[in-house]
Structure formats: structure tokens, C-alpha cells
Amino acid sequence: MTQTPNAAPMPPHPIVALDQVTKRFPGVVANDRVSFELWPGEVHVLLGENGAGKSTLVGMLSGLQLPDEGGVLVEGREVRIASPARALELGIGTVFQHSMLVPSLSVVDNMALGGPWWSRPDRAGVARRMAAVCAEIGVAIDPEARVGSLSLGEQQQVEIVRALMRGSRVLILDEATAMLTPKGAEDLGALMGRLTRLGIAVVFITHKLNEALAFGHRITVLRLGRKVGEIAPERLVALGPAAATAEIVRLMFGTHAGTEAAGGPPRARPAGAPLLDIEGLAVDDASVPVAGIDLSVAPGEIVGLAGIDGNGQKQFAEALAGQRRLAAGRIRLGGEAIERLDVGGRRERGLRYVTDDRLGEGTVGSFPISLNLLLKQVGEAPFWRHGIEQPEAIATHARRLVGEYDVRTPGIETAIGKLSGGNIQKALLARELSGQARAVIFAKPTYGLDVQNIRATRQRIREAADRGLAVILISTDLEEVLELSDRVAVMSRGRIVGVVDNNAEARSRVGELMSGVTA
Amino acid sequence: MSDTTRIGGDVLPARRNGARRERARLVAMALLPVLGAIVLSGLVLLALGVNPVSYYGYVLDRGLLNPYGLQATLTRTGPLLLIAAGLIVAFRAGIWNLGGDGQFLLAAVIVAALGPLLAPALPVWLVLLAGLAVGALVGAAWSVLPALLKAYQGVNEIITTLMMTFLGVSFANVLVKLAFRDPATTVPQTRTLAVADRLPRLFDTTVSSGLLIGLVAIVAVHLLMTRTAFGLKLRIVGANPRAAIHAGLNVPLLTMATFAISAGLAGLAGAVEIMGVQGNVRADWNPAYSLTVVPLVFLARFNGFASIAFVFLFSVLSIGGESAARRTGVPNFFTLVVVAILLIMLGITEYLDQRRRAAGK
Amino acid sequence: MSGLFTEAFLTSLVLGALTAGLPLMLAGLGEQISEKAGVLNIGIEGMMLFGAYLGFLVAYATGSVWLGFLGGGLGGMLVAAPMALFCIRMGLSQIVIGIALTLGAEGLTALLHHFQFAQSYPRLPAVETLAIPGLSAIPVIGPALFDRPPIVYLAVLAVAATAYVFRSTQLGLALQAAGDKPAALDAAGVDVVRVRTFAVFSTGFLAGIGGAFMSQVGAGIFVPFMTNGAGFIGIVLAMQARGRPLWVLAGALLFGACLSATTALQVAGVSIPTDVIQMLPFAAVLMVLVLFGRRASLPPALGTHYVRGAR
Predict the structure, then answer these.
(1) Among all residues of chain B, which has the CA nearest to that of C89?
(2) Is A344 an 8 Å CB contact of chain B?
(3) pLDDT value at B128 more than 90
(4) Which Pfam families does this UniProt record tie to the protein (chain B) (predicted)?
């Protein structure tokens, strides 16, 4: 799949270069003396895990952040990119992971945005130029459509077209495939190919290895804020896909990680009557209605729920946990119907939910860890008696869990929002896995964590199953699902489109199901 | 627009670690705006051709040092503390109850009408108890509509409570002029509660026992919010409503409860003001206490004990200012200016503190 | 009651609706600009009041109605300036600062009025009207609508102008984006802070003129606290109009009719306390909120401070 760059003879300077840039945020060095060169006509992949420093690097190229040290060069000249406007002037256009379009405006109005205040937006002219660019790169967009009514993939195309219309010679695509279907990602890859043939330089940021190899000409790997390696186009071609993969894995995860990531010890296949039994579950939802979910999980079993993000996994998990109304269906836990109980009732019977939105809904950031550990038990004895707080009992409980789950914190009174993502996740795991847990839903449990915490979290999930808990593991990371699950269910457009046993063929079967090929 | 109107989360200081330094910082953060406001408002006085030193000296004398002034100040403190207590509950639960003036005034009018009616028939203590209960109920009732709209429709409570205040103030006037008018007077007002039937005075002073009610209420509210499961639930809703849903709290019900308590306390303040101080309500009377207490509660960072200090300070200023109006010719609108400057100084202090802390990291 | 609908009654009703509704309309229009750009401007009451005071002061001192209105607009902008500084630049709570500005303007205008005019209570002469030939001859609505001070026509033109700006200029797009998705506006190279600052000052200018209209045309005198919640009605008008200036005009006239109904009824010989009538607009607003509360849409970024690159 790897292609050679289609550029004419190499120009003397890279079109954009970062020279030993360093960027610090409170408590972390997000980029540590990173150098980076971008040549016209090639797709330069920036590969790294969440938190590796990719977004910061993009931020410095696109004018959202300024480097603390080091320089930015455009065509060999040192520049200061202090604002997105400046980046545009320099010919650097960015398509961010989250859409940078105004939903309530039409496509042309979004494109026209930014002219002199009292001028009339030149809608006809914009539409004309847009049509020209669209024809050149082979996409079709209705200029009058309201952006809010377009799909995410279409919105991305709009942003790419807009960047080109503004004369961008450099296009930065930040985690552009994260929200796309496999088909959408493929289309984007093809589009990137067409762009490079027009001499445009593309920076493609991703944490997915297969995409990096499929779409990229040059690959730079970041880890924990440092650049740990770069594979030039000639070398990438010379290595071939298999050797390149091995090399990248070595760079991304360090030397040891490769072996351990290959999967835990095979676990005895659990058997027995289902502990958690879901039948015909349906949820009304404006964006992704969920319907007809049948799923049962035996004690000690891990059922992975794979799928592209936004296919109803969140709606399903919230309905299961009791945060959302069910439109239909039954949920039985150990034979008892629990679908009419509220969150507290279900929790009392042993159903737990580890949310992926740790700061948004999982915790109250400004509250101490001790109270966050009891967030779902407010008012319960022995922590409250007759509604009065019992500080000793609360502190004892917190100290025990902080110790057991290895939460690294200055103290149990520290506001939880001040902890790192990994430690917040440990606190959430402590809250959900302690006590009388019987069935647990994990939503994207390792999202945004570093390698160590990913490993620790996966270990917790295995241990939970080994204790005899029924586990549902929702993840958009296929590797994770395949590593941990006994069975894999695939969710697409609010339905479970198939369930397969996790064996040798699972990978290809799940892949087919995810891309909509049903057999 | 739920996120837009959140009230800055929770501000409980860490309990043990660095508690002293934290407390010193909070004290400085509360006192700096006060000092700044005194200086700036002094400049306003200068601009108006009034000597600020002699003005503030007079205010201090008449509001604090002079025994009659001090007693008037303490009496004024009572209802203000009740209003502050109500605001603390609401703000900590993330609800902008800006309708306190309507809740206060309507409760005041109804209690004023009810008191003289019940007084001949019932023992004094029962009249007083009934008055307090009715005041709280009326206040709470006047918040039911905003509460329902907020809890079940997500309608912004800033708008609805303000509307209810305007509606309530006019409605109170209608009641005074049409329904409860004392036929014996020419100026429209309600019948007057005899001094013997009012809230008892404390010891040998003229200080109304409303002060005690206010103190008890604000300390109780402080303990409720910091020491109980119910208070914690309200604080969770205030600090992160989505976490409250995730934790299985009944957010609409807690929202309703917040409104009821907050508005009930404002109504109670109205009852205390009538049965402790005024004795009746004249047409077009509206002291607009609630909106001026808002900044004080912010200054105190929703802490009950700190609120007592600031409410007392404000009472000194307002009682002293009323005397000064007669003497120095500076009308007591001046206290509004002081409060506004205070609030802005508070904002600036907060902003500087944030920057300092961000820079220190 | 058949005598109720005489020509005199109707004329005074329409005229009253216009006189009482125009300040509301200007306030609502101003607030709408702020809200569109993502600023919840609670200080608008203070802006109106200061406009009323300064408008009166300037008109009284210079004898010029036009300078008076200009002064009113400047007065509103004077109150808008701290709002722009503290909320838009520094990111302080828009609600807390809004309350502070309203309280401050109330106190300050009352104080200044006390020191300047409390002894004399001067009045301004009636503002001259400009009859529009032809239209002003229509019975009932002619004298009420087309024989008014020129500022009335200008204010109505302002509605059309605002609608044009919203729909057909870059500024309109920028305002919309600042309230809907400020990050997108920033990415397009437009300074969000500048757009919002402009919006807040526009609000101040329009609200100030609205206040000046109350003191110069409506009352002919400045009275402390005279705006009496008109700014807050403006906030509601803006909310209900959901970004459409023409709806603000319609809503303001409706409210104006409610407010002026007392005078009109007195002309007709029916006596009702003003308080009952004053309750009507607020009751109407609440009714609307009860019926359509869920649908009152507001810009997603309303009331939030924009920080570039915040995650």
C-alpha cells in the first residue's frame, strides 16, 4: 500500500519545519525538543498514542499555541505563528479533530467568514470557487446546505476544501479518521492521495498504525512528548509493510511493550447461566436510536463491544446503567429484572458502570477524592448517619481504596480534578469495582491513558472477570477488544450486527462486521 | 444554556493540608475588595464635593458606635441574613435565584395582612409562628413556576426569577391597594401590627429577635450544605449536573427543593421584617434587599460565617448611610454604588488571584 | 363599554404602545446583538438607565434633542465599557458583573440626579414631531404612527438595518459564529474578543438611546430608577425573538400596548391601578415561557468566556 511521494525534484527547504521546539503545560512537558520537517507532495504521518504530544505539535503549527523554546520555519525563514489567522496567511490550513465550522451557518457562509466587517459575503463567488476546488479534488458538496445537517465526513471535506480555497499549501488533518466509518477513512485516504498529486503537503495525525502505513509517505513517531523516530519515504518503501509495522511498534511502545501487548494469558472459557441478560433493549435518541439489543454475559466472561465511536454504544451503556430511559426491553441481573430500577437501585444489586467521560460526568473535579469515591453512595451508612457526614468513616474508606488501587495523590482531600487522567481512572475503577459488584460495563476504559495506565487498567478488567464478574467492554480500539474479550459483539447504527467468539478468525470477522459486510 | 450560568463550582477549602495558608489567602481575597471599594467610593464622594472621611466617620458612628445605631444595625441584619442563607443554598446548588425581592415582598404583604387579622383571636406566639410559616410558604410558592420550568423544561432561571420579581412587586402593590388596604389611613397601606404583637425584642434593647432567627438560619444552612448528605447532593448538582445524573441523583427534584428552600428563606425574611420592624406594608415599598445581598454572599464565597460578617458590615453601611442622608445630604443610593464597586473589585481580585496562581504553577 | 373603542381611545392606545414600546424595542434589539455573539448582557438595565440620565442631562444642557440622544447612546456605552473589559477581555462572570453594573448605574444616576436636579426637577420641552405627508392623515394610526419625533422612524429603521447586518454582512456572520462556535470564528482569523466587544458596545448604544427616549420623549424628565425593568423585558424580547430583529419590534409593540393600556383606559374613563397593567407584560412573558420554554433557543456559547485552544 505504501506509495512513493509524487513530488517533482526536492526543493532546497522543507515547506514547514519545526526546529527543536519545546512546549510546557502546568505539570507536563507536552513537546520536548521535537524537530519535524514537511516536504511538498507527501503525506507526513504523525503517529503516537493519546497524550504523546501530537495535538500540541499541531497547535503550534496552526497558531493555537506558541512554542516555549525552539523555532518554526516556513520555507527556511523563521516565523512566529501567533494566531490561526497568521497560520492561514502562511499557507497552513488545519482540519481539527472537532469540526471548526459554525453549525448554524450554511457551507458558503462558513467559507465566506472572515472578510472585512461591512462587506457583503460574496456568496456567489465563493460557491463558484468552491465548485472549482471540489472538481479538482473530486468531492461533491452542496454549498447551500446548513453545516449542522451534514455528516462528520462531509464536514471534514468542507474543511479541506475551505483550507485549499484559502491557498493552503500545507494541510494538517488532526485525528481526522477518529470519527469516521472505515469506508469514510478509506475515502479520506484516497483524497489525501489526490491532494499530494497536486503538490500539497499533508500532515496526517493518527494513533492508528494501519492508517499510518496505508496513507503515509513519511512517518514520525512521538512518545511522551518526544520524537522517538522518523521513517523516511525511501526507507518505508524498502522496509515493506511487515517490517515497518514491527519498527513502528518498537518505537511507539518501547522495546518491552511489544511482547506484552500481544495478549494476556489464555483464560479458561467461562461457562454457566448468564449473570447479565439483556433482551430487546431499545433507547430513543435523536442522533442514534438504539434498538433490538440482545446480549447475555456469563459470570467471569468478558464480552467486547466493538464499533466505530458514535454508533450507539454510549446510549446503550447509559440505558443499561439506568441514566437513560429504556424505550423497550428487559434487563436481568442474576435472574432479577432490574430495568425498572434507577441508577442507585441497579448499583445496589451489583451493576456498575465505568464511564469514559471521567471529568465530564464521572467525577466532580473540584471535590476531594474521598467524596468522589462515594459519589454514587451519598447518604449511605456508615459514611452518613441520619444524613450527617461521618468524616472518619469517609476518610478510612478513601485511604483503603487509594491504597488498594494505587491512586497516586498528595492526599485524600485533594481535588480529584488536579490528578492525572490515569489516577482519575484508578479512582473510578476503585469506586466501581469495590463492594458488591456483580456486573461491570467499561466504556472506553483506556481512552487517553498512557502505556502504564493502559496496562494497569486492562489488568483490572481481567481481574474483575477472574473474580466472577460479568464484564461488558465497550471500546473503539479493536486491539484492546481482541486482547481482553471472550466474545466480541459489533455495534453499528444502534444495533448489534453480530457476535463472534474470539478466536483466530475473530479479527477479520469483526473487521467485516464493522465495515458493514454482513454475511 | 445550562453551562453558561453555572456559579463557579464549589469552594470548600482543603480541610487540613495547607489549611492555614489557604485561609489567609481567602481572608485577603475578601478584604482587598472591601478596601478597594472604600477607597474608590471615597473618590466618588470627593467628586460630589463631600468629604469622604467625615462621611464615613459619620456612617461608622451612626451605624456602629452609637448604641441606637448599633441596635438598628443588628435589627436590619436579621432579614438580610435570612436572604443570604437562601442565596447560599441556591448558589451552591448552581441555581441563580435572582427573584428574592419578589419572594420577600409578597411574603411581607401577606404576613402584614394576616398578622392584624389573627392577633385578636390567637395568642401572640401562635400569631408569630403562623406569620413566619406563612411567609416562608408564600416565598416558596412564588418560586414554584421558575422551579418547574428549570427542573423539567430547562428554562433559564435567571430570566424567570427576574420576571417573577417584577410580577411579584406589582402584585404586592395591587394587594396593598385593593385587597388589604387599611381603611383608616389615607395613604394606601396594610393595617398595622400592634407593637405588642410583634417579634419580641432581645433583652433590654430595641434589637428584634429576628436577628436570632437570621443567625440560626444561616448557621443551619452552612451546616446543611457542608455536613449533610442532602447538602452534598445539592453541591454535586451545582458543581457538575452531569455527574449528578451519572450518580443517580434525582436532579429535577433536588432543583425543586433548592428553589423551595431558597425562596422560603427569602419569604421568611419578609415575615421577619414585617413582624419585627415595619409592622405594616405601605404601597410602593420595596427595599430590594435581595439583589444587594447577592454581592455579599459572593464576597463570602458562599460561606455562612463569612456571610454574617459581610451582612453585618453592609447593615452598618446602610443604617449609617440612612442617617448620613439626613445629615450630610448624600442620599442612601450611595450604598448601591458602594455595593456595585465592591462586586467589581471582587471580580478583579478573583481574576488577579487566578493569574497569580496560574503563574505560580 | 361600547364607548371604549372611540377614535381618541384607539389613537392614544397606539400612540402609547409606540411610546412605551420603543425603548423596549431598542433594548431588545441591543440585547439581541449581544446574545447572538454569545454574551448574556444583564447589565442592560443599567445601560438604559445611564442613557436616560445622560440623554436628559445633555438635552437639558444643550437644548438639542439630537445631542441628547447621542448623549444617551454614549451613556449606555459608558456602562458597556466595564462589561466589555471585565467579561469579554478578563472573562469574569457575565451575570455577576451585569448585576453590579445595574446596581451601580441605579445608585450613581440617583445620586447625581439628587445633587443636580432634586431641588428644581426641570422638564424638557416636548419633542417636535415630524409628520410624514400622506400617511399621517390616515385616521387613528396616522397621528399615532406617522406624526412622531424623527427618532422613532430612525429606531424602526435600526430594526431593518440590524436585520440586514445579520443576514447580509460579514459582521452578521461573525456575530452568529461568535455565539454559535467561537473557536470556528477564531480559526477563520476573526478576533472573537473584538466581535463580542463590538456587540456589547452596540447593546450599550442602543439601550442608551432607548433610555434617553424614555427621559426625553416619554417623560420629559429624568426620575431615578425610571427604566423600571425595561432592560430586563428587553432581555426576554431578545430571547423570544430567537435572532430575528422584526420579532423584537412586534414583541416590543405588544408589550408597549400592555404598558400603555392604563393611560388609554383612563382616557376612556375606566380606572384600573397601574400596577395591574404593569403585571401584564411579565405575566405574558412567563406565559410564553411556560408554553414555549423548551423551544426558546439560545446560542450554545452564550455566557461563556472564549479561551483560545482551551480543552
Answers:
(1) B351
(2) yes
(3) yes
(4) BPD_transp_2 (PF02653)
Q: Does B29 touch chain C (CB under 8 A)?
A: no
Q: Half-sphere exposure of residue C155, counting CA atoms within 13 Å on the CB side?
A: 33
Q: Which domain CATH number covers C220?
A: 1.10.3470.10
Residues 102-161 of A with CB under 8 A from C: 102-105, 109-110, 112-121
Predicted TM-score of the model (pTM): 0.83
**CATH class for domain A39-52+91-258?**
alpha beta
Query: Cα-flanking dihedrals φ and ψ of residue B238, to 5°?
Result: -70, -40
Domain boundaries in chain A?
39-52+91-258, 276-514
Q: Which residues of C touch B351 (CB under 8 A)?
A: 86, 90-92
Q: Which member of C82, C232, C300 has the closest CB to residue B344? A: C82
Find the CB nearest B163 among C42, C275, C286. Answer: C286
* CA of A216 vs chain B CAs: smallest distance (Å): 39
**CB atoms C187 and A96 under 8 Å:** yes
pLDDT in tens, A195-215: 999 889 999 988 777 788 889
Using omega within 30 degrees of 0 as the cis cutoff, is the peptide bond preceding A289 cis?
A: no
CA separation for the pair C7, C11 (Å, rounded): 6
Instruction: Report the amino acid identity of residue B282.
Output: R
Are A224 and A251 spatial neighbours (Cβ–Cβ below 8 Å)? no
Domains contained in chain C, number: 1
Extract long-range pairs of B211-215: CB within 8 Å, 24+ residues apart. Answer: B211/B74, B211/B75, B211/B77, B211/B78, B211/B81, B212/B78, B213/B78, B213/B82, B213/B132, B213/B268, B213/B272, B214/B77, B214/B78, B214/B79, B214/B80, B214/B81, B214/B82, B214/B85, B214/B269, B214/B272, B215/B81, B215/B308
| pLDDT, tens digit, 9 for 90 and up, residues A21-69 | 998 876 667 888 999 899 999 999 998 766 678 888 988 998 888 999 9
Angle, to 10 degrees, between the axis of helix A182-197 and the axis of helix A123-137?
90
Residue-number span of the structural domain to which C113 is assigned: 16-126+137-295
Q: Hey, do A39-52+91-258 and A276-514 end up sharing a CATH topology, with the first three levels equal?
A: yes
Size of interface B-C (CB pairs under 8 A): 153
- Asked if residue C162 is part of any domain, the answer here is yes
What is the pLDDT averaged over residues A119-131?
Answer: 91
- Report the gap between the CA of A425 and the closest CA in chain C (Å): 18
Residue C58 is assigned to a structural domain of this protein? yes
Whether residue A518 is predicted with pLDDT greater than 50 in this model: the reply is no
> Is the Cβ of A325 closer than 8 Å to some Cβ of chain B?
no
Give the number of A-C residue pairs with CB atoms closer than 8 Å.
72
The model's pLDDT over A361-409, given as tens digits with 9 standing for 90+, comes to: 999 999 999 999 999 999 998 999 999 999 999 999 999 999 999 998 8
CA distance C151 to chain A (A): 24
CATH fold, domain A276-514, is: Rossmann fold (3.40.50)
For this complex, say whether ipTM is above 0.90.
Answer: no
- Greater confidence (C252 vs A505) lies with C252
Residue B119: CB atoms within 10 A of its CB come to 20
Residue B13 has pLDDT above 70, yes or no: no
Q: At what angle do helices B304-328 and B67-92 cross, to 10 degrees?
A: 140
- Minimum distance, in Å, between the CA of residue B160 and any CA atom of chain C: 7
How far apart are alpha carbons B280 and B109 in whole angstroms? 8
What number is the average pLDDT over the span B323-338? 86
Residue A202, SS3 per DSSP: strand
Residues on chain A touching C188 (C-beta within 8 angstroms): 84, 113-114
Substitution target from A65, A104, A150 for chain C, most C beta carbons within 10 A: A104
CB contact C280 to B (< 8 Å) = no
Sheet of strand A336-337: strand arrangement: A290-297, A276-283, A328-333, A336-337
- CB atoms < 10 A from the CB of A336, how many? 9
Cβ contact, residue pair B361, A387, below 8 Å = no
